[in-house]
Every structure is written in C-alpha cells, then in structure tokens.
Write a structure and sequence with these properties.
The chain is α/β, with parallel strands linked by helices. The chain is built from nine helices and 16 strands. The strands form four sheets. It has a seven-stranded parallel sheet, sandwiched between helices. Strands 13-12-14-15-16 form a five-stranded parallel sheet. Bound molecules: flavin-adenine dinucleotide. Flavin-adenine dinucleotide binds next to helix 6, helix 7, strand 15 and helix 9. Flavin-adenine dinucleotide (FAD) binds next to helix 6, helix 7, strand 15 and helix 9.
Length: 321
Amino acid sequence: MIVVLVEHSQGVFKKKSLEAVLYAAHIAKEMGTDITAVAMGNVPDSEMQTLGAYGAQKVLHTTDARLDNFNSKAYAKVVVAAAQKENAKVIIGLHDTTGKAVMPRVAARLQAGLVAGAVGYPDLSKGFTVKKNVFSGKAFAFVNVTSDTKVISLMPNTFPVVKGEGSATVEQMEAGLSDADFSVKVLEVSKASGSVPLSEAELVVSGGRGLKGPENWYVLEALAQELGAATACSRPVADAHWRPHGEHVGQTGGTIRPNLYIAVGISGAIQHLAGVNGSKTIVVINKDPEAPFFKAADYGVLGDAMEIVPKLTEAVKKFKA
Ligand code: FAD
C-alpha cells in the first residue's frame, strides 16, 4: 500500500497534491498495489471522492479543529497513523513548506529512508532508486532507499496533472491526537497578497532588491494584473517586510514552475534560482549586464526596471485590446 498526504485550501485540493496522487498512482501500478490518500481538516466528501480520478482508491479523513492551522508535529502523527493502519511501505508527500516539515518527522517515526525533493519515479529495477535535486537544483543525485518503509517528498510541479476517471471511498480516521501534539503554536499565517495563488500560477511577476523599496511595487502589480499573474519576490525583499513572506521563492521559500517567470531587479543567486529554475520561460529585467540571472534567462532585458516594466505593461494592454 502507498499512503499519500494531500493538502487543500478551503476544502479544495491543491493542484500539487493531485500531482502527488498521480505520482503515487504511477508507483502503485509498478508495485502492483493501491493508494490511500490522507486528508486533514474541513474537506467535503464530494471533494475527497474526486481523488479517485487521480488514482486513489481510498481517502482517510481526520477532522479536528486544531488541524485547521498547519502543525508539523500533529500532521506527522496523522500521516504515521494512516501509514500504520494501511501497513504502507511507501509514504509520499510534497517537498513544499508543509512536506519539508512533515515528511522528515514521518520518516524518523517510521524508521524509514527519506528521499527529499524527488524529481523522478523510483527505478524498481535498481532496488528503489529515486532521482532528486541536490545543491539547490544545480545537480541531481540518485538515491537507493534500502529501508523496508520508504518516504518520498516530491518536488511540486515536476509532472503534468491530468485528470482521469474514478471515485475514491472516504473513511474517517481517528489519529489519537492529544494536546501534546499541538505544543507548537502557529501565531500568524501570512498569505501572498495577489489574487492568483503563487504555487498554482502559470504566470509570475517577481521583484528583488533592485526595486529599491515597497513604494515601487505598484509597477510589478500593474504588470501582474494585466497578465493575470501572481506576484513573488526574493528573500531579502520578504525579510525587509517589503512583501509578505508567502511571496518569497527560492531555497528557503516556495518552489514554483510557472510557464512564465518575469524576474525584475533580482540578481539570480543560486538560492533564488533553486525555487524558480523549473519555470518554462524566464525573462530577466536587470540594469547590470553581469547579473548572474541573465545566464539562466530565456529572454533578457537590460535596463532600469522603473522604465521598462511600465512599458511592458502598456504593451500587454495594447496587445489585449
Ligand atoms: P540583490 O542581490 O541585491 O540584487 C538586486 C539586483 O537588482 C541586482 O542584480 C541589480 O543589478 C538589480 N538592480 C538594481 N537596480 C535596478 C534597477 N533600477 N532596475 C533593474 N535592476 C536593478 N534568496 C532568495 O531569493 N530566495 C531564497 O530562498 C534564498 N535562500 C537563501 C538561503 C541561504 C542559506 C542563503 C545564504 C541565502 C539565501 N538567499 C535566498 C539569498 C540569496 O543568496 C541572495 O542574497 C538574494 O537572492 C538576493 O536578492 P536580490 O536579487 O533581490 O537582491
């Protein structure tokens, strides 16, 4: 059996979780086994049944008001309970903010080997060898997991999400949660401010320290609005509170793979690239011809962001008219 942790936003499963279920389905087929998804919090049964269209046979649902806010310790306990109930040999989550905190805990509790940041299916002809990112996505490693139970966190947006057919059965699961599992308190949840959720966005306009201050962000927001894009930023920008932390992408922030990533006034440090170098097309706007980001760009525009971005916005407006 394979157990896969699925995440939702206000009762609707995130695209990256559907990707995780499809990923698990591919492995399950090769191993000749089934998939059970683990969902937490307030999700309607009708939504859980839809996981059947991505390959899950069953969904274990744990409802507890305390799970409405993310809590790595409690989430891990629920996943472990599901894995033990199903006698799962493979447990899959995402290599996102949730999975990075939960899956190592799950692996430790189950004394399982962990592949963090997988970007390929396990090669069963070579034991259980999984391709994963290393050095912030600059290189790959192939890890053979030899433990009896295996835990994988999948890099989001690695595989396409294609809906099939089918309906999953839903079962309530009591995970034995106690107050001690909620010893870590979430004080604040900071959400990206744009109308398009960053992790799901096909188009992203992102800004760095080259924007000079939060008062100049209106130029990026205007472009994002014309494009129907989400907004993102580099880490120093979030650290300086110019933008909310939910917009920070990179090694220590979100990983995104949009169709188009427009990087404005961002130097292109390896830690930033780690979160965006899977984007299909990268456009870099920077006034320094030596900015490292130009090496990773499909298109580069050399010049001052405050001059170029408004012109680009006008061009998009005209194109749409
Ligand atoms: P800068 O490096 O200051 O670059 C600003 C750029 O703007 C320059 O290239 C400059 O030429 C250009 N510019 C200036 N003025 C203009 C203008 N008027 N018009 C156009 N261009 C202009 N960073 C992340 O982003 N995400 C991470 O997850 C992350 N994790 C990290 C983890 C670790 C362990 C460490 C050590 C660092 C991490 N960093 C991360 C920081 C990273 O190393 C860089 O310092 C950071 O990405 C730089 O941000 P920046 O490009 O916005 O700023």
